[in-house]
Write a structure and sequence with these properties.
The chain contains one helix and four strands; from the N terminus they run H-E-E-E-E. By secondary structure, it is an alpha+beta fold. The chain has one domain. The chain is elongated, with a radius of gyration of 15 Å.
Length: 64
């Protein structure tokens, strides 16, 4: 088994099988700050892991 498969197995064991997970999602605002810099935003969201994909309820995002 290679490291990639080992990583997926670890994620499946810790996050899979119908477990509720809290994950962090980071985005950058399209509106610049007062200093003219992008505004990053990190938020914690509820998600579940199924078949290699984190599913975020009420949103259709796939995080791989």
């Amino acid at each position: 088994m290679n490291r990639y498969d080992e990583g997926l197995e670890l994620i499946n064991k810790s996050c899979g099988n119908g477990k509720d997970n809290v994950i962090s999602v980071a985005t950058i605002s399209t509106t610049l700050s007062g200093e003219g810099l992008p505004c990053p935003c990190v938020r914690e969201v509820d998600a579940y892991y199924e078949k290699g994909v984190f599913i975020l309820p009420h949103m259709v995002y796939q995080i791989r």
